[in-house]
Design goal:
The complex is a heterodimer of chains A (233) and B (109). With 233 residues, chain A is mainly α. Chain A has four helices and two strands; from the N terminus they run H-H-E-E-H-H. Chain A has a domain at 23-155: Helix Hairpins. Chain A has a two-stranded antiparallel sheet with strand order 1-2. In chain A, strand 1 and strand 2 form a beta hairpin. In chain A, helix 1 crosses helix 2 and helix 1 (9-72) runs antiparallel to helix 4 (126-232). Chain A starts with 8 loop residues before the first helix and ends with a helix. Chain B is built from four helices and four strands. The N and C termini of chain B lie far apart (38 Å). Chain B is 39% helix and 22% strand. Chain B is α/β, with parallel strands linked by helices and 109 residues long. Classes of the chains: A mainly alpha (233), B alpha/beta (109). Chains A and B meet through helix 1, helix 2, strand 1 and helix 4 of A and strand 1, helix 1, strand 3, strand 4 and helix 4 of B. Strand 1 (89-97) of chain A pairs antiparallel with strand 1 of chain B.
Chain lengths: 233, 109
């Protein structure tokens, strides 16, 4: 509220400083938001490619496991799945995109050779191996999608935060500061006008009093001049 | 710290991933998803050794609102859904609409 501010020159200077700082911050944040959106667009293109590849891999993997189930039976597939010894692992490192820390996921033991799978060469069939291969491919796509989608989520959070800050400056803080500045300027101008008016009034009164005193002095002098000849007679 | 991949869904969905070596999984049969899927997802979310959660996109409809919001917004572990085509999970799409102001994934529908 503008009326909560004391209309003093010191406050006006402080508000002008805050306006300058807020305007500079607003411009910087706007640039940051635009930069983040541009970076996000690049990641989005990449994410859409990754998603599309992952959908293809999922379809292939499903087809292969359905085939394995049909040919070998569900029990054999589940048995092979339960025999796996090597497990895929992921490690996360981070990189910085315009101040946003996004992960870089590295995976190990996703692709395995036949002897690493643990269910043995005799205990399984080519169909199960093909399904396992297809799911290993799918896992690689999933890991890539996780990396890209985490980056997207983090970028979106930062974009939302920056956007909220820009909007708060643009629609709340700056209008309030402008309103306060205008209020103080108007009040100071009003005070200045009042001061000028008051000075004029004082000056006029003083001049009036001087004129009155002068008139009285002249009248007194004239009266004295009239009395003097009478006394001489 | 190395983490693992977890799969949550019906036994038919998880078996394939187990063939690829995934050992963290929560099997929830289709007819029990409304009652048990929430707990399975919450358990997986609380496991610090899980880095990625894989689910079928259609299974998200069986989750309660709170759990769905939590899993969709989670960064560690991050959720990857399958079966949604090129549009990604619903949560991500909504977040894009909210942050950018337009639906950038519209063309994929």
């Amino acid at each position: 509220m503008a009326k909560d501010v004391k209309p003093t020159r010191k406050n006006l200077m402080a508000i002008e400083d805050r306006i300058e700082l807020s305007e500079r911050g607003h411009d910087t944040l706007e640039q940051k938001r635009d930069g983040l959106i541009m970076e996000f667009m690049d990641i989005l293109d990449q994410a859409q490619d990754v998603r599309s590849d992952m959908a293809d891999d999922y379809e292939t993997a499903q087809r292969k496991i359905d085939m394995a189930r049909a040919m070998e039976g569900d029990v054999a597939v589940r048995g092979a799945a339960a025999a796996l010894k090597e497990h895929p692992e992921i490690t996360t490192q981070s990189k910085n995109i315009m101040g946003v820390v996004v992960p870089q996921i590295e995976s190990s033991k996703v692709k395995k050779s036949l002897d690493e799978r643990g269910y043995g060469l005799l205990g399984s069939s080519a169909r199960i191996d093909e399904a396992a291969d297809a799911y290993e491919e799918l896992l690689e796509s999933v890991i890539l999608a996780a990396e890209v989608e985490t980056a997207m989520k983090k970028m979106l959070e930062e974009i939302e935060t920056t956007k909220r800050r820009v909007n708060a400056l643009e629609f709340t803080l700056l209008p309030q500061l402008y309103e306060n500045q205008e209020y103080i300027e108007q009040k100071l101008e009003e005070q200045e006008r009042e001061e000028i008016f008051r000075l004029k009034k004082i000056k006029a009164k003083k001049e009036e009093e001087e004129a009155k005193e002068e008139a009285e002095a002249e009248a007194a002098a004239a009266a004295a001049a009239v009395e003097e000849p009478e006394a001489a007679d | 710290m190395s983490q693992e991949i977890a799969v949550v869904g019906s036994p038919e969905f998880t078996t394939g991933f187990r063939l690829a070596g995934v050992r963290k999984f929560e099997n929830v049969p289709d007819d029990e998803k409304d009652e048990r899927l929430d707990d399975a997802v919450e358990r997986t979310l609380e496991d610090e050794t899980t880095g990625i959660i894989v689910m079928h996109d259609a299974d998200l409809d069986h989750l309660s609102r709170g759990t769905r919001e939590r899993v969709e917004g989670s960064i560690e572990p991050v959720l990857v859904t399958l079966g949604a085509g090129g549009a990604g999970s619903g949560g991500l799409r909504d977040q894009i609409k909210r942050a950018i102001g337009i639906d950038l994934m519209e063309e994929d529908d």
